[in-house]
C-alpha cells in the first residue's frame, strides 16, 4: 500500500493557518490593552509634570531663550531685578497677556503663577 505524501503537508498547513489566526486574535487584544495602558500612563505623567515642575525649570524651558539662562536678558529684557520693579500680579499679567515683543500664553495659568512668584523674589 502506497501512502499519500500530500496529507502530512496539508495537516501542517492547516495547523499553521489555525495558529496564525489564534496569534492574530491574541495580538489584537494585547495591542488594545497596551494602548489603553500607554494612554493612561501618559496622562498621569503629564499631570504630574505640570503640578511638580519647578519655576526654574519652567523658565529654562519657556523663557530663557529670550531672557537668558541667568535672567540677564538678550532679546527680551533683563529680569534679574524685576521683583523690585513690578509686583507679582503685574508679572503674572505680563506672562499671561504678553507685552511688547513678548507673546501671550507661552505657559499655562499654573505655570504663570509659579513663575510670577519666583520672579517677584528677584529684587
From TrEMBL:
PROSITE patterns: CYTC. SUPFAM superfamilies: Cytochrome c (SSF46626). Signal peptide: none annotated. Residues 50-123 form the Cytochrome c domain. The chain crosses the membrane at residues 6-28. Keywords: Electron transport, Heme, Iron, Membrane, Metal-binding, Transmembrane, Transmembrane helix, Transport. The keyword Glycosyltransferase does not apply. The keyword Membrane applies. NCBIfam families: cytochro_C550. PANTHER family: CYTOCHROME C-553-LIKE, MENAQUINOL-CYTOCHROME C REDUCTASE CYTOCHROME B_C SUBUNIT. This is Cytochrome c.
